[in-house]
Structures are given as C-alpha cells and as structure tokens.
Amino acid sequence: GAVVSQHPSRVICKSGTSVKIECRSLDFQATTMFWYRQFPKQSLMLMATSNEGSKATYEQGVEKDKFLINHASLTLSTLTVTSAHPEDSSFYICSARDRKTGYGYTFGSGTRLTVV
Amino acid sequence: QKEVEQNSGPLSVPEGAIASLNCTYSDRGSQSFFWYRQYSGKSPELIMFIYSNGDKEDGRFTAQLNKASQYVSLLIRDSQPSDSATYLCAPQRDFGNEKLTFGTGTRLTIIP
To answer: Chain A within 8 Å of B7 (Cβ-Cβ)?
Structure first.
C-alpha cells in the first residue's frame, strides 16, 4: 500500500530557530500533499495544501510566512516552521493519496515538535 | 454549527460488544466519508471509506451512511481491547476538492 515517510519523528528546538519537516511518498507520486497540525486532545486541523510545482494553499488563519511549504518534486514536500515559539509546539502530520490505487489518504507518522 | 460533529466520549464498551460511533456533518455537498483510527501519539490510519447511502462492511467494521440526514456511523463488532483509540470522521466534498475536514473524534475504550 501507499506509504508516506515523515521525518523527523520528534524534534526539540530553541525558541527563535527554524525547523524543517520532510514528507516523502515512497511508492507513489503525490501531486498533492496536506499538512495538518494537532494539539493535545484536539482534532487534526488542516494547515495547508501543498501542490507539486506551485505555491501552497494555506487555510484561513495560518501564517504562510511562518509555515513555509515547498513541494519541489512529486515525492517530497517540506514544512519549515520559521522562528518557532513555544505556542508552535504541536504534532505535525502530512498526508497524501495515491490516486492510482485507492481512495484513502495515507498519513505520515507525524512529527512531535517541542519549542523550548 | 461545526462542519463535522462527533461525540467526544469517552465511549466505554465491554469487550466483545458492538461499539457504535456517530458523526453528523453540515455540508450537504459532501460525497465521500472516511473513518480513521488514531492511537494516542500516533498518526491516523484509514479504517473505512463510504460514498453510497446504506451500509458497507469490512470485517468487523460496518460504515453506515444517510446523506438525507447528513449522518454517518461506524459500527465495530466483537470489540477488542486493541480497538481502543480515537475515531475520526472526515467528509469530503468531491475528489476534485481533495481536502478532508476532520471531526474532533470519539475516544473509544474497550473494557476487557
């Protein structure tokens, strides 16, 4: 089945620094990848939709200059949290769909970001 | 009105019984519906997908959809302790608009 590899799984960074999270579709081409954020005991909130070769589409209330998304190839999308602050501490998850094989969306394993 | 509403639970069900999870949605344009299971600290995994009114069965899981009532449910038969997780409902408008909007999820606990 479709596999999405996400790295790192856990990262701790100092306030003011930037963190890059990578998501790769291992056995399919992901023209679209979705980035979610999940705070403790809350549901997944869609942050942005990443499209290969074009600018990402951000959801209302998500700062595009703070959460930089790059989807340079059909198998790789990255999310960079710039100038991270403690309130950015969250669980970040990417998701994509293999259009050729199924309807379901596959999620990466998630990245637990802690900003200290 | 929230786009997707689920009873947050926790829902406690004895092992071997049927667990019933419900979801209502506000967007009448929703065509497809996904049920995901999320264990604590992990990312969601797909359980079921349904797009036609009626029931769809897959092993111990049955999804039920009623578009007129804007209601979708997930039944888990012969509940096992390993079914203890949060279950997320996610309607989708159409395949051209691919983003999913998740409900807050129902936390299910299977009591041995």
So the answer is: no
In whole angstroms, what is the distance from residue B99 CA to residue B92 CA? 7
Write down the pLDDT at residue B95: 61
B14 forms beta bridges with B111
Report the DSSP beta bridge partners of residue B91.
B33
Please report where in the chains the tokens 């959801």 appear, as a residue: A59
Tell me: pLDDT of A76 over 80: yes
Predicted pLDDT of residue B109: 96
Closest CA to B108 of B19, B5, B15: B19
Q: Tell me the count of A-B CB pairs closer than 8 A.
A: 44
Please report the pLDDT score of residue A56 as a whole number.
92
Closest in B44, B98, B105 to A107, CB measured: B44
CA distance A16 to chain B (A): 25
Sorting pLDDT into bands at 50, 70 and 90, what band is B103?
A: confident
- Across the interface, whether the CB atoms of B102 and A106 are under 8 A apart is answered no
Q: What is the helix (H) or strand (E) element at residue B89, kind and residue range?
A: strand B85-92
DSSP secondary structure string for all residues of B3-70: SEEE----EEEETTS-EEEEEEES-TT--EEEEEEE-TTS--EEEEEE-SSEEEEETTEEEEEETTTT
Average pLDDT, chain B: 91
